Amino acid sequence: MTTKKRVLSGIQPSGEFHLGNYLGAVRGWAARQDEKINYFCIVDLHSLTMPQDPTTLRAQTRSLAAILLACGIDPARSTLFVQSHVTAHVEACWLLNCLTPLGWLQRMTQFKDKSSRQETILTGLLDYPVLQAGDIMLYDADEVPVGEDQRQHVELTRNIGQRFNHIYETEFFVLPEVKVPEAGARVMGLDNPENKMSKSMAHIRGHAVRLLDEPKEILRSFKRAKTDSDNEIVFSSAPEKAGVNNLLEIYEAVTDKDRETVLADFANARGYGDLKVGVAEAVIAAVTPIRERYDYLMRDTAELDRLLAKGADDARTQAQPKVDAMKELMGLVLPARK
Ligand code: TRP
Questions:
Q1: Which of 48, 138, 234, 287 has its CB surrounded by the most CB atoms within 10 Å?
Q2: Statement to judge: residues 166 and 254 lie in one domain
Q3: What is the arithmetic mean of pLDDT over 132-156?
Q4: Which of 5, 179, 196, 257 is labelled catalytic?
Q5: Element (DSSP H or E) covering residue 277
Q6: Domain that residue 274 falls in
Q7: Residue 167 and residue 127 in one domain
Q8: Torsion-angle region of residue 271: left (phi > 0), alpha (psi -120 to 50) or beta?
Q9: Angle at 87 between CA 81 and CA 91, to 5 degrees
Q10: How far does the centroid of ligand 1 lie from the alpha carbon of residue 276, in Å?
Q11: pTM over 0.85
């Protein structure tokens, strides 16, 4: 018998969940739930490292939970929970802070990038990757499915884990590997197809297709999508074809058709107008059942909160003993059991 790999996925509740998040990540997570032991963590504490409106953050946290469930994350097979419900995450963050050199954090490109755009740099933003290291290593995760932009944070996690293992002469922490999703599901912005569809830009008209958009909104977004002037419907990596290529790849992903069939479907298109409508219709067909399940889940948030409480209980049974064992190794006295 082979033991199943352990996977921790972290997803921020801030910003609006869009087609790129679904096709690029969550759809695959849902499809492969049985292959591995999965923890899905809604990282609300990470969202606090940037300014947030409290009411919006709270609403987005529940909304994201409902979206993940609607996309097929099954609480009977996976552990879905909110990071702040499991206090071991902040405890682990502090403990790991006490062995992480400041220079390692100051070198992170995401920190340099985000902090350069701010007048006041918050400590939490610098510490963000240490919290993330705790998220991952509390669950003995072998794999972390993230985009390229998060590779550096997972490598930092390994460095912190290695340092802990070295100092305390143990093999206490599993050192995680990055698992970048397979190609083909990289959805680009409809208005700027040179760049990935972005959660933080999802509110800009014409940039993203949000998973909860109404059909007519989805159609409108695709009709505005940037293309080119040569009228050739082809898969291509040429920069000027980025828009058309993105539309075709979205269609390929939502229909699960091979490329030949995709092109055959558009062989009679009378231009990009037909392409855009065809892609929009395929996307609407794919997301409508998700939106319906979402609406159903959001009708009873007490039930949703119960599911999350159950997820947090499950997560805690793994994370709390792990953080307690860290404390013991580091010389803290654990409270006597009552
Ligand atoms: N930093 C990740 C992102 O922005 C979110 C995240 C937080 C995460 N903790 C994690 C991802 C743990 C994977 C594992 O995408």
A1: 138
A2: no
A3: 95
A4: 196
A5: helix 272-298
A6: 199-296
A7: yes
A8: left
A9: 130
A10: 33
A11: yes
Distance 9 CA to ligand 1 centre (A): 7
Q: Take residue 110 and report the two structure tokens written for it.
A: 């995401």
CATH code of the domain in which 206 resides = 1.10.240.10
Do residues 253 and 23 make contact, with C-beta atoms less than 8 angstroms apart? Answer: yes
Atom 13 in ligand 1: residue holding the nearest Cα: 10
Domain of 105: which CATH number?
A: 3.40.50.620
Q: What is the pLDDT of residue 182?
A: 65
Q: What tokens appear for 223 in the block?
A: 């009709």
Query: Separation of 146 CA from ligand 1 center, angstroms?
Result: 7
Where residue 331 falls (left for φ over 0; alpha for ψ -120 to 50; beta otherwise) is left
Q: Ligand 1 atom 8: the closest Cα is on which residue?
A: 10
Cβ burial of 11 (10 Å; 0-12, 13-18, 19+) is buried
- 1: confidence class by pLDDT, cuts 50, 70, 90: low
Work out the average pLDDT over 151-162: 98
Q: Report the number of distinct structural domains present in the chain.
A: 2
150 within ligand 1 shell (Cβ under 6 A): yes
Examine the residue annotation and report whether 327 is marked as an active-site residue of this protein: no
Closest residue by Cα to residue 234 from 207, 267, 201, 187? 267
Share of the chain above pLDDT 90, in %: 89
Report the alpha-carbon distance of residue 187 to residue 279 in Å, rounded: 13
12 close to ligand 1 (CB < 6 Angstrom): yes
Per-residue CA distances from 264 to 228, 244, 276, 284 (Å): 20, 15, 15, 20
